[in-house]
Inverse folding.
């Protein structure tokens, strides 16, 4: 089941604070990324908080999100360092130290690191896809994926994943057919 609407805190007195920008929000995802070869980013650490306190106000009523994974596309705050630039936020280096991540490489030069925060605040437009649950005081979704991405982007990413999967199945079937000739 997919629901779309405005984000609300299920328990308004339990608000999260992001580790880097100290922004109050309902839920957030914080990641430490390292630039790899060919423009790929490798996730060194990722943490999400507040997913249990999330509800979606829809035109039909409020839907509570019981357990979810955050798939947030819009960066709220980002801080980077690379060979010629240091972090601009004074909290960045202590967060790396707390995560046991050395900001310098083996040869002593700065690593290309990015600290990335994405948040959900009251009133943000979000959508969730999950399994509806019964016997709850509010309608609820379990094992949901919550995203702030547009429907077009969400459908495009899902379609590309399906096409790539079908391509690999087609290749595998071709190899098996060739092997048993």
């Amino acid at each position: 089941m997919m629901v779309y609407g405005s984000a609300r805190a299920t328990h308004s007195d339990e608000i999260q604070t992001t580790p880097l920008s100290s922004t109050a929000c309902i839920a957030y995802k914080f990641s430490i990324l390292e630039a790899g070869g060919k423009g790929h980013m490798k996730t060194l650490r990722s943490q999400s908080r507040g997913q249990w306190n999330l509800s979606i106000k829809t035109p039909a009523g409020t839907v509570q999100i019981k357990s979810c994974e955050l798939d947030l596309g819009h960066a709220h705050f980002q801080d980077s360092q690379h060979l010629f630039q240091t972090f601009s936020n004074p909290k960045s280096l202590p967060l790396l130290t707390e995560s046991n991540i050395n900001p310098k490489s083996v040869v002593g030069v700065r690593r290309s690191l990015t600290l990335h925060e994405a948040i959900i605040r009251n009133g943000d437009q979000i959508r969730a896809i999950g399994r509806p649950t019964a016997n709850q005081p509010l309608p609820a979704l379990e094992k949901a994926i919550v995203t702030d991405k547009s429907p077009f982007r969400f459908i495009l990413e899902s379609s590309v994943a399906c096409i790539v999967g079908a391509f690999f199945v087609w290749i595998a079937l071709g190899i098996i057919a060739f092997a048993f000739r």
Notes: The chain has a mean pLDDT of 87. Residues 2 and 91 are 37 Å apart (CA to CA). The chain has two helices and twelve strands. The first strand starts at residue 2 and ends at 9.
